[in-house]
Amino acid sequence: MNRNSNHNSQTQGRKEREWELRRQEILDAAQKIFEKGGYFNATMAQIASEAEFGVGTLYQFFPNKQGLFAEVILREVESFMQGLRDLLSTRSLWQEQLKLFVEYKLTWVDKRPEFQRLVMEIFYAPIHDVAPQIIDEFKELHMENLQILQDIFIQANKDGYTFDPDLMSIATMGTLNAIASDWYMGLLKKAPIEYISGVLNGILGGKRDV
Amino acid sequence: MNRNSNHNSQTQGRKEREWELRRQEILDAAQKIFEKGGYFNATMAQIASEAEFGVGTLYQFFPNKQGLFAEVILREVESFMQGLRDLLSTRSLWQEQLKLFVEYKLTWVDKRPEFQRLVMEIFYAPIHDVAPQIIDEFKELHMENLQILQDIFIQANKDGYTFDPDLMSIATMGTLNAIASDWYMGLLKKAPIEYISGVLNGILGGKRDV
Amino acid sequence: MNRNSNHNSQTQGRKEREWELRRQEILDAAQKIFEKGGYFNATMAQIASEAEFGVGTLYQFFPNKQGLFAEVILREVESFMQGLRDLLSTRSLWQEQLKLFVEYKLTWVDKRPEFQRLVMEIFYAPIHDVAPQIIDEFKELHMENLQILQDIFIQANKDGYTFDPDLMSIATMGTLNAIASDWYMGLLKKAPIEYISGVLNGILGGKRDV
Amino acid sequence: MNRNSNHNSQTQGRKEREWELRRQEILDAAQKIFEKGGYFNATMAQIASEAEFGVGTLYQFFPNKQGLFAEVILREVESFMQGLRDLLSTRSLWQEQLKLFVEYKLTWVDKRPEFQRLVMEIFYAPIHDVAPQIIDEFKELHMENLQILQDIFIQANKDGYTFDPDLMSIATMGTLNAIASDWYMGLLKKAPIEYISGVLNGILGGKRDV
DNA sequence: TATGAATGAGCTTTCATTCAT
DNA sequence: AATGAATGAAAGCTCATTCAT
Fold first, then answer.
1. Do B47 and B26 form a contact (C-beta atoms < 8 A)?
2. A86, A89, A102: which is closest to A204 by C-alpha?
3. Most buried of A26, C75, C114, C188 (most Cβ within 10 A)?
4. How many Å apart are CA C95 and CA B36, to the nearest integer?
5. How far is B10 from chain A (nearest CA, A)?
6. Is the pLDDT of residue A6 over 50?
């Protein structure tokens, strides 16, 4: 799950568990600070203070500020993705999967409005230039989202729909992200979750090839 | 209207024209640097060097780094909006307007792939906090986009379509922005302009209420 | 009179007179700005703007900021001294001269409360280090003050007083300057001119050697 | 009372004592640099170099240049005042107190000739504008001086003298400060301490109302 | 002669990172 | 292992001075 935890939790000793605990405390603190003002306005001292550790301690767990930021982002994105994977694996009908996908994403946006901002920060240069592995990993996860949607639309076409899976996956993600952005900007008339049925209708309404 | 529109050389002296020229040179240089590494990684020294001016000169034309950034963003966004307004005013049928809108946006994305990143940078906290007038002005322009699309979908409904104009304006913008983002990230299979007909079909296909 | 004016005003042409006029305008403007915030907070641009000249023009009349400041100070101090000399030359009795001295100084303080501050600024380092000629000239004028007072007290001793001229000249100047400082600081209960008789009484009262 | 008086090493840990030590080292270095060229010519880099610390370290102990300057001034002034208070509290006769006051001030001037300049710098505009608490605190201490002298002269009047306490306090301070200034400027024939008896004679000589 | 646009050295201040304890 | 004092490079911005017009 976590890239730095031992895979076999049976063999973890107290030491390892405490270490992982402190690591997560730091990540929690860092996420809070990063969400407040973005990467550049966060300082290691603020994060250390929030985490109730010394500044030096942060560097025992993470190589530098960028590495800490990367872990925060990826932990959140992976948490989102894992929840999505778990959810979709419970259903096999594409209609149900599409509904769950839209519900899950918009519920997440509702609960974690800063998430969108945090994710958008990835496209910034310093992370671009100096920590390309983050952007790569993020791209992969973004593509996983698109692939899930494409598979759904491919299934739909087997039921007589005529979606362009490539375009529709982009359009669906784009629509959901636009709802998130506009919500974050305060431009939305309704809460994100109230758009669920509208989005589904918009996708499915009258699209069947008969 | 447009703050850069005093191009009436009839009433401008040589001084004014040269002043405006230098101002645009600085804005060009700043845009280049800002696009490369984002607001925070850009330094005034880099911009000055790129513009082939001394650092002090930048401060003769702009009050500070933020002000310069704001002008860069707004110049670009307003240029986009003005082109859009001019274009749409030539047609009155909603179908034609929608087609022009999608074409215009995707053509722009094709020509200026950095534009999306530049615009996304606005949502960052520091600019948020310290220069709220930028974010306000940007919001207004974003809402103008949405309003144009809503008007188009309202017209469409008079022709028997059953669009939800609110949702469809968000979805259309979101889809176009997603194409822009994915293009910028290198995740797109085709160039943005190749998605034009797909997007239009996706919106219009089978949506008529009959 | 003015160190930069031709001595023979008969031979001054229009050019010379206009030049001197502009010079004084700049000095007036500079004095106003220097008095407002001191030497370091004044900028050449402010002074130029106040004088309604271009910045470059300032450098046609004065070598640099320090030189301009020096001229401002010395013009004021010399004006003070010249007025004092003229005034004292009208009387020969030491009692009258002492009275005039005290009156003159305190009236000046009343009219030009910033004068004290301006003069104190001389002791600052930049002028100290880089323009020692100013401090020297100022010292000379300060010593002229002390000498005038010493002469008065020497005369007084011939009338039976037992002043220590050296100490009394310092004490008298110090008292008058203290009134000026405290007035400038807003710590004085009465206006400077209301201290005139008190100061004279304090010096003369019961001092006669009988 | 005195902000630097936490010298009770009983209750202080090693950390606290070392912290206070470094703080004083920085203040010493800053005082040296400020005395040399005044507030504006001093740079934080010079002070850091003199203190043998990095520049950043200065900002761990003081909020900014102005704060550092304020502490330097107030440390010195309060040290002067505390010594004065302690000294005067040992005697109750006004004659003795006046003698001690004059001696103390002139001895201080002798030992710390830069002190006067440092104090005069307070009256400068920038410090005036931006750090008004310094000027306020300084005014209070100056007024404490004047009050001490006024009390002395009020006592004297009970013994038959006819001093104007208000004026005499100003005159006495002014005289002592004038000795300090002239000494600093190199205009004095004798060392400050050699003026002690002269000043006392000047004040008391023949002043009794009989 | 008068100008003011252009300059760039130099300032204060911040903060990620290190390392002695 | 945990600390946080110390660091110093690097940033934004100012302004006295110059010089082409």
1. yes
2. A102
3. A26
4. 81
5. 42
6. no
Burial of residue B15 (number of CB atoms within 10 Å: 0-12, 13-18, 19+): exposed
CB pairs under 8 A between C and D: 119
Q: How far apart are CA C202 and CA C196, in angstroms?
A: 10
- Give the Cα separation of C90 and C104 in Å (integer): 13
Q: Is the pLDDT of residue A115 over 90?
A: no
Distance, C-alpha C79 to centroid of its chain:
7
Alpha-carbon torsion, ordered C142, C147, C148, C153, to 10 deg: 130
Higher pLDDT, B92 or A11: B92
List all nucleotides in chain F with at least one atom under 7 A from a protein Cβ.
1-20
Chains with ≥3 CB–CB distances under 8 Å to B: A
Domain end residue (candidates: C38, C62, C86): C62
Output the domain CATH number for residue A189: 1.10.357.10
CA B185 to chain centre: 18
Q: Check the CA dihedral A131-A135-A141-A143 and report its sign.
A: negative
Highest mean pLDDT among A149-153, D159-163, D206-210: A149-153
Q: Structure tokens of D197?
A: 């008896």
Are residue D112 and residue D22 in the same domain, yes or no? Answer: no
Answer yes or no: do C45 and C116 share one domain.
no
Question: Which residue segment(s) compose the domain that C86 sits in?
Answer: 65-204
> pLDDT-based confidence at B209, cuts 50/70/90?
very low
D70 touches strand E (CB under 7 A): no
| Residue (of B41, B179, B125, B45) closest to A127 by Cα position | B41
Which of C118, C175, C200, C210 to substitute to test the interface with D, most D CBs within 10 Å? C175
pLDDT at D161: 92
Question: What is chain D's Cα-based Rg?
Answer: 20
Amino acid of residue D55: V
C91 and C27 inside one domain: no
Minimal C-alpha gap between A85 and chain B (Å): 22
Shared-domain flag, residues D89 and D167: yes
pLDDT number for residue A125: 55
**pLDDT-derived band at D154, boundaries 50, 70, 90:** very high
Same domain, A85 and A184: yes
What is the model's pLDDT at position A26?
Answer: 98
Structure-derived torsion over alpha carbons of residues C104, C106, C110, C112, reported in degrees to the nearest 10: 70
Task: Mark yes or no for CB contact C164/D37 under 8 Å.
Answer: no
Asked whether residue B209 is domain-assigned, the answer is: no
- Residues C126, C151 within the same domain: yes
Contacts of B175 in chain A (CB under 8 A): 170-171, 174-175, 178
Reported as type and span, the H/E element at residue B200 is: helix B196-204
DSSP D163-199: --HHHHHHHHHHHHHHHHHHHHHT--SS-GGGGHHHH
Together in a domain, A144 and A173:
yes
User: Count of CB contacts below 8 A, A vs B?
Assistant: 121
List % helix, strand, coil for chain C (3-state, nearest 5).
80, 0, 20
Give the list of residues 6+ apart from residue A208 with CB closer than 8 angstroms, or none: A159, A160, A161, B206
Chains D and C touch (3+ CB pairs under 8 A): yes
Instruction: Please answer yes or no on whether B167 and A38 come within 8 Å at the CB atom.
Output: no
| CB A104 within 7 Å, strand F | no
Contact status, residue B113 vs residue B184, Cβ threshold 8 Å? yes
Q: Whole-angstrom Cα distance, residue C163 to residue D202?
A: 8
Round to a whole number and report the distance in Å from the CA of B180 to the C1' of F3: 47
Are both B157 and B125 inside the same structural domain?
yes
Q: Which of D77, D35, D27, D19 is nearest to D51 (CA)?
A: D27
